[in-house]
Amino acid sequence: MKYHPDKNPGDKVAEEKFREASEAYQILSDSDNRAKYDRFGHDAFGQGAGGFGGDFGGFEDMFSDIFSSFFGGAGGFGGGGSRGQAGRDLRYNLEVEFEEAVFGVEKEISIKRDELCETCSGSGAAEGSSPETCTQCAGKGQVGIQQGFFTIARTCPVCAGSGQIVKNPCGTCSGRGKKSVQSKLQVKVPAGIDHGQQLKMREEGEAGTGGGPSGDLYVQILVKKHPVFERHDNDLLCDIPVNYSAVALGAEIDVPTLEGQARVKIPAGTPSGKIFRLKDKGVPILGTSQTRRGDLHVRVHVHVPKKVGDEQKKLLEELRSLDGDVPSEEEKGFFDRVKQMFG
Asked: In sequence order, what are the beta bridge partners of 274?
């Protein structure tokens, strides 16, 4: 367009550039010409070898090809007729329980969408009649507007691109060919799906027009939080409170999993915050049919009671007297580091 003759009247340089663009397009758009150019270069297209002369027809063809790709034509405006249009895609937010996302579930949902009218089978015409070819665009669904030596395609304003006119509309859909209905669908939620991921259900969106395909339905999964487990990819984290005697003396405790209780051995002297791993007790890896799973990480925390009974208080006092003022090895190490900081 920069070197278009209409924009540069009398400009020989622009005319030459425009001619070069036209010739380049004719070479690149034809497989035989492209092969000749790859072998012999520009000499293969001289005046004596069937060159392109001086017309701008190649550039006009280029615009025609570009617009036909935009508007669905077949080689310009010469034929092919109108094409059906795909229906709109739809989205649905589906909330599931934590365990349902982990192990998978099938849910029934209800969505409002446009479906083909059963009375007229999507034609929009009343029984005993049929749509007529639009006389404005001759059924192509688009009309051409002349701009200089090339033509621009526009959607036909009479038939709105359908190529047909419904003179006797269907009483059920008022000539739309579609009607809005509340549809129920079954959604299979796969095991291991995570919060925010979405499922694509092909052609479960709104119906197309003119024989076009239906749109797709995108179901976004919203997973409820669990009161005990925290998910990290395919692993689970669970915080377990334990009393002082359990971590000091060692013990076996029951911990929850998604499939019941499990026993975990706590060695004597276990520090608060220690994490124990239960292999293959996490979330199934999506797409593996639950054959591969993450792990469950159990983190123990020493529980300090806010109130203690008289007997407990007496025993703790005895323990404190036995500990005396002798610091533990951990305390010694900490105080040594503090001394180094302050010289």
From this structure: none
